[in-house]
């Protein structure tokens, strides 16, 4: 099954490639980005400050400014670094699906899109931090948030919209695009607010395994995408 093939291919997307070829300099840049990622995830853009990030990374603020510029530039670089990894895996997953079949199922397309984010959250503390940081981006000024999301994600999202349009010809492409926005909102909420499951089931379900959660979410979102107009 296409889903199983993708599961074996997506390994530890929480580890981005080095950003340059200068060895220690690359390690230092990534260390700063790792600590900044944790700070932004915990406090948001406004709450995090360069002094704390520098202290955590064991460097001075001047070095952060040398590598990244302003705090906004550092935030953007954090987002681009791991968000680019996510987008890349989504492209790869879609390519593999289309190699297997010209008409993959809606479920396989949704799984291919969501799986990299699931893997990233559970890959490491920094992978989970990026997921939280990404959710916090929705609380940032709209212009900034939209610009970053467009830059990092639009190309991959639009490819999935096109693929879904091919397998759901009865649903207008504009409607699929709107439903894709619903999909993004739903998966970000479920990645970051799992405590609500216990509340809403009156304690009958206190935890869902990550694979079971993903399976349930894929089924729900696929049904929504193919719903009659």
Explain briefly what this protein structure is.
This protein is mostly helical. It contains 11 helices and no strands.
Question: Can you put this structure into words, describing what you see?
Answer:
It is a single chain. By secondary structure, this protein is an all-alpha fold. Helix content is 76%, strand content 0%. The protein is built from 11 helices and no strands. It has helices at residues 2-9, 24-47, 50-57, 61-68, 71-100, 106-121, 125-136, 142-167, 173-192, 195-200, 210-226. The longest helix has 30 residues, at 71-100. It starts with a helix and ends with a helix. 31% of the residues are buried. The model is unreliable at 8-22 (pLDDT under 50).
Task: List the main descriptive attributes of the protein structure presented here.
mainly alpha, 229 residues, 76% helix, globular
SSE topology:
Blueprint: H1 2-9, H2 24-47, H3 50-57, H4 61-68, H5 71-100, H6 106-121, H7 125-136, H8 142-167, H9 173-192, H10 195-200, H11 210-226
